[in-house]
Amino acid sequence: MAEFELPDNDVNKYQVIDGSRDEAILKTLNDIVSNTGGDALNGGVVNKFGRNIDVDAGTEIIASFGGTFNIMTTADTLDVVSSSAADASGGTGATLLLIQGIGADFLNIEEYITPTGTTPVTTVNSYLGVNRVYVVASGTGNTNAGSITIDDTSNTVGTQAQVPAGASVTQQCIYHTQIGRTFELNFLNLSAIKVTGGGGQPEITIKGYSFSRVTNTVYEVIDLQMDLSVENNVIIPYTNPIVYTGREVIYFTCTTDTANTKVSLRFSGSEGDS
After folding, report:
1. For 158-200, how does the pLDDT look when each residue is reduced to its tens digit (9 = 90+)?
2. pLDDT at 146 exceeding the cut of 80
3. What is the pLDDT of residues 187-237, one digit of tens each?
4. Cβ(156)–Cβ(75) under 8 Å?
5. CA-to-CA distance for 46 and 38, rounded, in angstroms?
6. Residue 200's pLDDT is what?
7. Burial 4-27 (b: 16+ CB within 10 A, else e)
8. What residues have CB less than 8 Å from 32, skipping those under 6 apart?
9. Does the pLDDT of residue 251 top 60, yes or no?
10. What is the pTM for the complete model shown?
11. What pLDDT, in 10s, does the model give residues 58-109?
12. pLDDT at 19 over 50
């Protein structure tokens, strides 16, 4: 699953009280994968990554499902469905999923779901948003066979997450902060290419937004431009991090002047109690 690296600090700082160095490393890696803070450690790490493999001329969310991302403002259960019957108990694809997100109380929640192939299965919990879904058990295929889509049950908002076929984990640059927490974004890595077709190289604009659940307002906080005829990869370490408070929805979009543009983005930072 993508790249998981320990922070550039003395790893002994991250030891659990009654555990070994190896246990501390495993705990840190789990926090990075699961997108929850590391309460047993000194703070937490958020590591988000996503891609849109086909941005047409215009603006789309940087997420595998593409198009427009609509934010849930009323908590609802979620419907989970795959494009393949093999993603089911006893199948060759995904046999167990873990969903992690934000509940109606703006706190982190998670639950395990056994997919039922092309028949939707509904979560027990109600969510305001999804931070990550990943395969925790699979059959002989060792990954999810189809694209697994997660929508609100009432079908009033639309897709909240997707695990692309063969990826085993969501690929979306969307993060919901829980109440009473502060997230400091201190790293961003962006790459883009034109995947097919003739013509010139795209010029793209990447924008980072925050929707505040407190003010019910969208704020533009990041604006980056890239001419792919000049460069196609940018790494930005923020010396002064961008600070987000609790109950915010952080998301990124890509605008391109050329169809068939692929964009991949990763952002990360530290999260702790406000």
Report:
1. 999 999 999 999 999 999 999 999 999 999 999 999 998 767 8
2. yes
3. 999 999 999 876 789 999 999 999 999 999 999 999 999 999 999 999 999
4. no
5. 10
6. 84
7. eeebeeeeeebbeeeeeeeebeeb
8. 4, 45, 47
9. yes
10. 0.85
11. 999 999 999 999 999 999 999 999 999 999 999 999 999 999 999 999 999 9
12. no
Q: How far lies 67's CA from each of 49, 55, 214, in Å?
A: 17, 8, 26
Three-class secondary structure assignment of the chain: CCCCCCCCCCHHHHCCCCCCHHHHHHHHHHHHHHCCCCCCCCCEEEEEEEEEEEECCEEEECECCCCCCCCCCCCECEEEEECCCCCECCCCCEEEEEEEEEECCCCEEEEEECCECCCCEECCCCEEEEEEEEEEEECCCCCCCCCEEEEECCCCCCEEEEECCCCCECCECEEECCCCEEEEEEEEEEEEEECCCCCCCCEEEEEEEEEECCCCEEEEEEEEEEECCCCCEEEEEEEEEEEECCCEEEEEEEEECCCCEEEEEEEEEEEEEC
Question: Within 10 Å of residue 225's Cβ, how many Cβ atoms?
Answer: 10
* Domain boundaries, given as residue ranges, for the chain: 44-62+175-273, 78-170
Report residue 105 as tokens. Answer: 């109380």
Location of structure tokens 């028949």: 119
Smallest CA-to-CA distance from 242 within 266, 223, 224, 269 is with 269
* Count of residues in the chain: 274
Which structure tokens are listed for 168? 């085993």
Domain 44-62+175-273 has CATH 3.90.380.10: no
